[in-house]
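One such shown below:

_____
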Amino acid sequence: MLAVLSGGGTAGHINPAIATAEVLRERGVEVQFAGRPVGNESEWVRAAGIPFKAFEAEGFHRGHPTTLVKGLAIDAKSTKLAKKWFQEIKPDVVVGFGGYVAIPVGRAAVQMGIPLVVHEQNSVMGWTNRYLSGKASAVCLTYDHAASAVKDSSKVVVTGCPVRKSVFATTREEARKELGIPADARMLLVTGGSLGARHLNQAMCAMKDELLSRDDLIVIHVTGPKELDSVTEAIALTDEEQKRWRLYGFTTQMPACMAATDAIVSRAGASSLAEISARGIPAVLVPFPHATADHQTTNARAYVDAGCAHMIADDQVETPEFKRIVTELVDDADLRASMTAAAKAQNTANAATALADIVMQAAK
């Protein structure tokens, strides 16, 4: 059996695709990936050892009609190229994870009678998946809320958002040894995503003295590469403080950080939330306010309603309420335990398996 996976642009599309590929390959399924030639997927998918085929794809700006004409022309050309590729490799199923490149790849599958499965990571369905869902054999969701965008509800399966095996590869004990975190210390992980989060970084800087007054607390603060210099200057850590407040612009040790931590302050992108849920990490979520259709807020609200996290708006993180929420999570072990139990009840750890089941059913 051969499955072609497609998606691109952000980690939220790419990581779930790679996670699904891991499970399919364990089952003996051959997997190839279709993405943009210069997108993040080009690097990350190849690094995962998955054969990669590049296709051009481009979105459009609603305020500039000429971009629509250009985008449609590129998609039409890539659809033809994808059909030619499919004639050569003969896939049994195609799976789209969102991002503009999934449109020509998914369209080519439909035109050739190849089963198409769509996976939506967010609580608000993106434009690409909304378009492809009407043509798909199955539409797999992370959140029930997204089902409102699917006309044929019989296609819908809530699988959760697949998480890569590397997220589970390290135990808490191994991670703490790797990071040099004492077994009896409390740890708080702060991350604003790959690009960072200025308001969040500023709010955490303002809390330095409050948090470091807890002698057993260690903070790992991932600022985002563009924010590291300004945060380093603003927080002005002494040599002694740097032992317990560690600043990184970016770290390749994120799986270990997530395995080692007692709590996290994070954005609410689909991929980040899935990893937080899979590890059962008590969380304070600060949704990115400019996400399409404010989907990070909707993502976070569903997670909060399940008892897994607190949420605060980005424009409220420099208020006393944010300080109260963060310190409460750090200090209240019972609260953390209840959030961990609620997160594990979401069964996110099995999402990749559930999606792989649907993909293989569609192929048959």
Summary: Residues 26 and 354 are 14 Å apart (CA to CA).
